[in-house]
Amino acid sequence: MAFEGASVAADAVLGEGVVVSFGAVVASGVVVGPRTWIGSGAVLRAGTVVGEDCVIEECAVLGKQPRLRPGSSASREPLPALVVGDRVTICAGAVVSAGSTIGDGVILGDQTQVRERSVIGSGSVVGRGSAVEFGVTIGARVLIQTNVYVTAGAIVEDDVFLAPGVSTTNDNTMGRHAPGMPLAGPIFRRACRVGGGAVLVPGAEIGEEAFVAAGSVVTKDVPARAVVMGVPARVVRQVPDEDLIENFQRQLPGGV
Prior knowledge:
Blueprint: E1 7-8, E2 13-14, E3 19-20, E4 25-26, E5 31-32, E6 37-38, E7 43-44, E8 49-50, E9 55-56, E10 61-64, E11 83-84, E12 89-90, E13 95-97, E14 101-102, E15 107-108, E16 113-114, E17 119-120, E18 125-126, E19 131-132, E20 137-138, E21 143-144, E22 149-150, E23 155-156, E24 161-162, E25 167-168, E26 187-188, E27 193-194, E28 199-200, E29 205-206, E30 211-212, E31 217-218, E32 226-229, E33 234-238, H1 245-250
Parallel strand pairs: 1-4, 2-5, 3-6, 4-7, 5-8, 6-9, 7-10, 8-11, 9-12, 10-13, 11-14, 12-15, 13-16, 14-17, 15-18, 16-19, 17-20, 18-21, 19-22, 20-23, 21-24, 23-26, 24-27, 25-28, 26-29, 27-30, 28-31, 30-32
Antiparallel strand pairs: 32-33
């Protein structure tokens, strides 16, 4: 099998119909499923596993190893291979680290970053320029829009919506803590929604079906179904029944 102008390791396993474009690099031990397209300048580092019918756009990097500063709280244990599911799109310039798992049908936008030991569930979208730090768990059908920062250790449950510019934090000391002190990433419970530019302090939990208005600063836990707004964010009302995700979906064409 010849791929003109690409660098494909002799022991890489490429399924039927795989396209590797000019200038792409497929390293040793990589496995790529049938009908996947790999754009020019993309790099699949050693051991990376990619499913079938995927699109890896130009200059994306898959399977990157972390480069950690002295004192970083990230683990230095060896990482397993990056695993990418079926029908995944990884857009131009995205960087996805080794040790992570990307579920079926995920879209990672241009210039996104997904750090090591993170999991992104099926059907989720991470928008352009967003960063998912190490050890993050993201559920299914999550919508993360442009320039969102998901800090290390965060938990994002199914059907959550994070609007552009949402910023999360995990360290109340801002770096001045004893070695090994655990960080406190936020928790986004199922189907909660967070508006553009909102900021969450370390450890904040956004309850199931809660709604955080744009520009809010969340300094404490938000109860399930609460609508909060302001600086600091305060409860102003409850999410009405018709806005709950199951009821909303019934209103859509073909909804049940």
